[in-house]
Amino acid sequence: MTSLLLIFIYLAFVSLGLPDSLLGSAWPAMHQSLNVPLASAGLITMIISIGTILSSLFANRLIRKRGTAAVTTWSVFLTALALLGFALSPTFWGLCLLAIPYGLGAGAIDTALNNFVALHFSSRHMNWLHCMWGVGATLSPILMGTSLRNGFGWRGGYLLVAGIQAIIWIALIISLPLWHRFAEVTPTDAEPLITDREPLWHIKGFKAATLSFFVYNALEQTTGLWTSSFLVKGRAISVASAAQYTAFFYMGIMTGRFFAGVLANRVSDRRLIQTGLGCLALGTLLLLIPTSGTAILALPLMGLGCAPIYPSLIHETPTTFGPARSQAMIGYQMASAYTGTTLLPPLFGWLTQTIGIQLFPLLLAGLVLILTSAIYRIHHL
Fold it and tell me: All domains of the chain, ordered by start, with CATH?
């Protein structure tokens, strides 16, 4: 029964990854169809991210009242509904409105399942959980590129992904009885639950941990959102090809997390993170070389580097802060991560209008340096 439940948990994380790479791969076509500037994608991602921040911060209370299973199931329903709306919306401002339920759903899924797996399963399953996010994030640019190539446009791509999301929602409804054998973790006298009134800055490692999630998500989401536009504008690659090249980045994440899961019971979280940082730095350096060929090599290497960092940092959370505190801490970490998503992608969109999209690899290189420094602080508390 535990193995069967894991399958449904993995499916839920596929649903989390499916929309995450869809906007970036479709945006070169979307902004022309909607007659809005290229930088307007940043506003949509900002609204999505604000929703994820709010749902991440309140997820702890909601999960304690309703349980992980119910929160996850309703969150997938919200994202499926939002994706269907994206496919049908005639205006840019309609997309902005629909970004609200998508963000609220995504943040709750992320917080609920990350803590559930960190508490009840090994590091192997945490990496495979995020591998499933990579499956969704890799699949959607491929589906979008196929839709664009075959004349169905970006709306056809969104409609197809919305259908897949709806199927996953139905599967999660079927899985609800399987969750009851796992009790939700409650606080003890020895490990009091973090509350909104607790001075978080007094918790050792809190600042370094939240900074790491802020920078990591800023890096990953900026790469996912703007890679396609960078390849079209900066490397003269066609719109349809660029949409599918974006999948190389997510394919690297998916593959890397699968093998990180294979190695996780023999290699420490810390060693996996350090290896990932090295690959990420090398991939970013390759992206600085101004040719389309090196970009194609750089993207999967960057994905491989990103692969173990996020899940391994999350899996360390119960050990670092205690099991009873982990749900709240992961909520704050997710909120910090989505704050990075809120600020950096639209900021880069604004910079493309004032400086140019060639700044893209330099921005990523700077984020890699900051991320490395923040993680070093966590590991040397």
Answer: 7-174+201-379 (1.20.1250.20)
